[in-house]
Write a structure and sequence with these properties.
Elements lengths: L32 E2 L17 H4 L6 H9 L2 E8 L1 H4 L10 H12 L4 E8 L5 H12 L6 E5 L2 H5 L4 H17 L3 E5 L13 H15 L3 E2 L1 H10 L5 H4 L9 H20 L26
Parallel strand pairs: 2-3, 2-4, 4-5, 5-6
Antiparallel strand pairs: 1-3
Helix pairs in contact: 4-11, 5-7, 7-8
Length: 291
């Protein structure tokens, strides 16, 4: 992983993600921040247990597997709102994109996963769609982790409007041959009082199945971490009892890394479509233990 100084200027140009050298991801006004973790206590690995059936993706990431096979550098964009940006984390390096970056580098020695944090607190899916088309797709990442739904639910955005927004974003990514993992809303106690909150969780899973894309089931995973006795609600949430904290960011980054790793190592992902020579398993990589 590259080590760069953290930036807080929302007009900073996002660099270092292009083919053949540096590439500008966006023009002035783009608030992308490249998060590449530094050694710190907050970024120490946090392992959390969840059933494989709850964590594993139901759709493959064949394109990501091919890129990971062929390239040392693998570029990923984390698009989302405050729980991507890192509200509630003790440092920017403790937010989930930076932790996920660190986990992927650890799991694949010799590879450099470069995860850009495009979280913007309070943003709705519609605003993310604009940034996705304007800023993300032109940068040609291998994968987009799209976290959304929470603010739309809280603001009472019509569920069909939300659905169409997600479908438009997925269609744009598919047209650009960029893979996506949807990240559904977080669990927090007051979500029970938000009208249709569960419907937003359900519609994201429905869209994922319909479109053949993976969904990271954050809501169900957080519920499991609590119901299994691993953590109390207060141990997974920041002082506002809404945003995540270092523990939950670390847990989710660890479990997401397991899910993505499993897709990269999946044997059938090493076979490319007919007419193209299949790639070999990545040298020195051994299958991970079941989670």
């Amino acid at each position: 992983m590259r080590r760069v100084r953290d930036a807080v200027n929302p007009d900073r140009v996002f660099r270092g993600m292009g083919f053949g050298g540096r590439m500008v991801l966006a023009a002035a006004g783009f608030s992308a921040i490249l998060l590449l973790p530094q050694p710190a206590a907050a970024s120490d690995p946090i392992a959390c247990d969840a059933p494989r059936a709850l964590v594993a993706f139901e759709a493959p990431l064949r394109g990501l597997a091919r890129i990971a096979e062929r390239n040392r550098e693998i570029r990923i964009v984390a698009l989302g709102s405050s729980s991507t940006e890192g509200t509630g984390a003790s440092t920017r390096q403790a937010a989930y994109p930076a932790r996920f970056d660190q986990e992927m580098d650890r799991r694949f020695p010799g590879k450099d996963f470069q995860v850009a944090n495009l979280g913007k607190g309070g943003e709705l899916a519609e605003g993310m769609l604009v940034r996705l088309i304007r800023d993300v797709i032109p940068s040609r990442p291998a994968l987009v982790l799209w976290q959304t739904g929470v603010n739309d639910a809280i603001n009472g955005i019509d569920i069909e409007v939300f659905r169409k927004t997600l479908l438009s974003g997925i269609a744009a990514l598919k047209a650009a041959s960029i893979e996506v993992v949807l990240v559904d809303p977080q669990f927090y106690p007051r979500s029970a009082g938000v009208a249709h909150y569960q419907e937003y969780v359900a519609v994201m899973r429905s869209i994922a199945r319909e479109q053949g894309v993976p969904v990271f089931r954050r809501y169900a995973i957080m519920q499991h971490l609590i119901s299994s006795g691993q953590y109390a609600e207060a141990e997974l949430l920041w002082k506002d009892k809404f945003h995540l904290n270092d523990v939950s960011y670390g847990c989710l980054a660890d479990l997401m890394a397991k899910a993505v790793e499993a897709e990269i190592r999946r044997p059938q992902n090493t076979v490319i479509s007919a007419g193209v020579a299949p790639t070999r398993p990545i040298a020195g990589w051994s299958p991970s233990a079941a989670y």
